[in-house]
Amino acid sequence: MSTKSVPSNSIKAVKSGSWYTVSSFLIKSIGFITTPFFTRLLTKEEFGLYNNYTSWLGILTVFVALDISSSMISARYDYEKAFDSFILSILALSTFSALIWIIILNIFHNFFTTFFGVDRIYINIMIIYIIFSTSIEIYQNRERLFFEYKKSVFVSVFISITTATLSMILVLTYNSKLTGRILGAAVPSIVTGAVIYFLLILKGKRIKCIYWKYALIICLPYIPHILSLTLLNSMDRIMITNYCGAEGAAMYSLSYNCGAVVTMLFASINNAYSPWLAEQIYEKNYQKIYQFSKIYIVFAVCFTLGVMIIAPEILLILGGRSYLDAQFIMPPVAMGCSCQFLYTMFVNVEQIRKKTIGMAFGSASAALLNYILNWIFIPKFGYFAAAYTTLVCYLWLLIIHMVLVYHLGLRNIYSYKYVFFIVGILSICMVGVNFIYIHTAIRYFILVIYIVSLLVVGYKKKNILLKFLIK
Fold this sequence. Notes:
Blueprint: H1 8-33, H2 35-41, H3 44-65, H4 72-78, H5 83-107, H6 109-116, H7 120-145, H8 150-173, H9 177-204, H10 210-282, H11 286-309, H12 311-318, H13 330-352, H14 357-381, H15 384-407, H16 416-436, H17 440-460, H18 464-470
């Protein structure tokens, strides 16, 4: 197909989407690659406490930042001529919220430090980090929505490299390795976010409270959804810390981080996919979405299976032999990440259509279910149980979001039978992979077949992805 016959927006979508997907995955991989350094330099207790800190950071981010950036995808079309003013206004709203929270957390610091299991100084670092990381998130969302990528990719690369470098330096030089790890992860984003905040002020010029109402109508129903998802992702580690101690949390956290390489890739792809999806929905190209989604899902499944097969090697590299027992929870963790990917496809549709109330109900019910299952099974089976309870909750979320999109009148946007078929295949593979971990020769034979099959199919179908994107 000649370039002249391809719409300019589609070319920009392909180009920027490709850059975002590759760069975002590589950037997030830097944190993944540095994990062996921290697992060997920090004690299991320190590693577990740091993961407890990041769990609470994720929860506080929802309350403080209000997930305000989720309103941008709709505002991009509703306030096209005043979009930069809208961006500055919602950033100001997020900052105002943060200032209220920092006052509350410091007035009642004795309660919160005990409840979180996190020192007061670390709680204050969390809030400062949230203020400026929100400015980075809003800026990068703006760039994605206009299919721009160069400045955003540079910012991501800069933050990622400086975070990894500073964290390693501070862990080696600080008396408190935990403090060094936390400061190393926070300072680069705080400094970069402050610069971006200033630039957004210059670009937006005026703060209009009318935009606050617009954003809050979209975001407030969405906050229970995000909070529930954050609790779903964080509750395991918090409850394992309470029931099994920091070392149990360290074992689970490493396996969760290893399985999260699946999530890293999927989140990176979704950053490119969701603006493209919004454009197709607004243009009512439903058949195009239907066809492309099958290829999209197959790619996700192939990556998940690969992670399941080489889980022992991933754990050996990242944590060493002392963490190897966690290999048996890698398959359910990886499958859980795939289910998360699948339901995110449906969440994207709900968000684009501004239907967020049902999302909040689904996520809240999943978080409650996760708490109940963890409360029952973690004391009996230890941290192994948490991987399976989380998987059950992700499956529950997938079903709920499929039903919600069905009732939006977009039942033909994805193939429901195909999604259920994929979940069935993944379930069989999850069970089977656990049995081959103790038979290394068989597992390597399967790995060779897997790689060869991917290469053959990939070569034969190499033009299909581009075809559907620029058709």
